[in-house]
Design brief:
Elements: E1 14-16, E2 19-23, H1 27-44, H2 51-56, E3 68-74, E4 84-92, H3 93-96, E5 108-109, H4 111-114, E6 120-128, H5 135-152, E7 156-164, H6 172-182, E8 191-192, H7 210-216, H8 219-226, E9 230-231, E10 236-238, E11 243-251, H9 253-259, H10 265-270
Parallel strand pairs: 6-7
Antiparallel strand pairs: 1-2, 2-3, 3-4, 4-6, 5-8, 7-11, 9-11, 10-11
Length: 276
C-alpha cells in the first residue's frame, strides 16, 4: 500500500464535536481501520489471527481493496492510528460483481438479494473502540451510511452480524427469537450454505420470552431490527472469529427516513438527533 489517493468521496464529512465521520481517503487510513479491527476482533474478542495478520497487527483480507471504508475519527486521539475509533466496511453490488463477489457468500446463498433488486450494499467488519460504544459514535456511523446509500441509490443492505461464542445451544433463545419473529420474506431470504447451516429453531415459538431474547441480542443486531431488519434462514459458526453469525437484511427506506432528516448543519454541529 503506497498511500495513493482513493476514489472520490460519496458524501461530505459529518462533524460532531471532535468526532468526524467520512470515507477513508488513503491506504494509511484503511490501515488505521484495520488496526482498530485487530484490537477489537483479535485482542478483545479472541479471534484467531493468521501469521500475517498477527505480525502486522491489522485485520485484513482481499475485500479491503475493493470496499469503501466508513470511519469515525476522534481528531484529538493522536495515540490511536489515524485517530480511528469506529469503522464499517461497505461493498456495492456493482463493484462486487466485477471483483469476485461478496464476503457474505462464504456463509450464505444470497442470489435472491443480488438479482433484480437494483444496487445492493454489503455491510461488514463493523467495530468501535470500547470507550466510544455510545450514541454519538453510532449516530455518526449511521448518518454516514444513510448518506452513502442515498448517494448511490441503494435499496437493500445486507451482511453478517455476530453473536459471541461458537455454541449455538447457548444462544438458543436469541436465535430462535430471530427465526420466529424476524425471518425475511422468501423473496429476500438468504439461506446458510448447506455445509455450514445451523438450524435456528432451537426453541418452539411458545417457549420464547421475547423481552429476554431482546436483552440477549448484541446492540448492533437490535439496531438492525429497529430499522425493520430481517434475518436469513440458518446460523453459521465462525470458529476463526469465535462467533455465531446470522444474515441480516435491511431495506434502506427506513434508514434514510430516520437519519437523512438529521443530515444538516445543526446535527453536524451539536449532534442532537436520536442515535440508533
Amino acid at each position: 500500500m503506497d498511500g495513493a489517493e482513493l476514489p472520490a468521496q460519496a458524501f461530505e464529512p459529518i462533524h460532531v464535536g471532535n468526532l468526524v465521520a467520512r470515507l477513508a481517503n488513503t491506504t494509511e487510513e484503511i490501515e488505521a481501520a484495520q488496526s482498530l479491527r485487530y484490537r477489537v476482533f483479535y485482542e478483545e474478542m479472541s479471534a484467531i489471527p493468521s501469521a500475517e495478520v498477527k505480525s502486522t497487527r491489522r485485520d485484513f483480507d482481499r475485500f479491503d481493496e475493493i470496499c469503501d471504508h466508513l470511519l469515525v475519527i476522534d481528531t484529538k486521539r493522536s495515540d490511536l492510528p489515524g485517530g480511528v475509533v469506529g469503522t464499517y466496511r461497505v461493498l456495492r453490488s456493482t463493484v462486487a460483481e466485477q471483483n469476485g463477489g461478496f464476503y457474505t457468500s462464504d456463509e450464505y446463498e444470497i442470489g435472491r438479494l443480488i438479482t433484480g433488486q437494483g444496487d445492493t450494499l454489503e455491510l461488514g467488519r463493523s467495530c468501535v473502540e470500547e470507550e466510544y460504544r455510545n450514541r454519538p459514535t453510532m449516530q455518526l456511523l449511521w448518518q454516514s451510511i444513510a448518506a452513502y446509500i442515498s448517494h448511490y441509490d441503494i435499496a437493500i443492505m445486507f451482511g453478517c452480524a455476530s453473536m459471541p461464542g461458537i455454541d449455538p445451544e447457548a444462544l438458543a433463545l436469541p436465535l430462535s427469537y430471530l427465526y420466529h419473529y424476524h425471518l425475511a420474506p422468501p423473496a429476500l431470504r438468504p439461506v446458510a450454505l448447506k455445509e455450514r447451516y445451523v438450524d435456528m429453531r432451537l426453541l418452539p415459538e411458545d417457549r420464547i420470552d421475547q423481552r429476554q431474547a431482546l436483552a440477549e441480542l448484541p446492540p448492533l443486531i437490535k439496531g438492525y431490527l429497529r430499522l425493520g431488519g430481517f434475518v436469513g434462514d440458518g446460523a453459521v459458526v465462525d470458529h476463526q472469529f469465535n462467533t455465531t453469525d446470522v444474515s441480516i437484511i435491511v431495506k434502506t427506506d427506513l434508514v434514510t427516513e430516520k437519519y437523512m432528516k438529521h443530515y444538516d448543519r445543526k446535527s453536524r454541529r451539536d449532534g442532537e438527533d436520536e442515535g440508533l
